[in-house]
Amino acid sequence: MTVMEDELSRVFAALADPTRRAILARLARGDATVNELAEPFAITQQAVSRHVKVLEHAGLVSRSRSAQSRPCALEAARLDDAVGWIERHRATWTERHDRLAHYLKEQQ
């Protein structure tokens, strides 16, 4: 496995959880602290912090320091890498699907 594939594995593993996807959707609207991210969820702040750490490890979220808070920010470039991977494979899958459809049409 190459380094790029390993990074993609972390991105896709992070995106597999609906809470983490919701956190990313919130961060797409702007930076937020963990407390702000935790507000809509019926889970503890510590649980949200664990989700944020997974997102940080995947490179999808970064944290800065502003006075007493550490706001989280979306790192959209990492999502672009995942979208690029999907798009490259979509072309292959589409081509295979089209060939199968053509074959099935010939068999009728």
UniProtKB/TrEMBL annotation:
This is DNA-binding transcriptional ArsR family regulator. Gene3D superfamilies: Winged helix-like DNA-binding domain superfamily/Winged helix DNA-binding domain. PROSITE patterns: HTH_ARSR_2. SMART domains: HTH_ARSR. Pfam families: HTH_20. Residues 1-94 form the HTH arsR-type domain. It comes from the Bacteria. CDD domains: HTH_ARSR. GO terms for molecular function: DNA binding; DNA-binding transcription factor activity. Signal peptide: none annotated. Keywords: DNA-binding. SUPFAM superfamilies: Winged helix' DNA-binding domain.
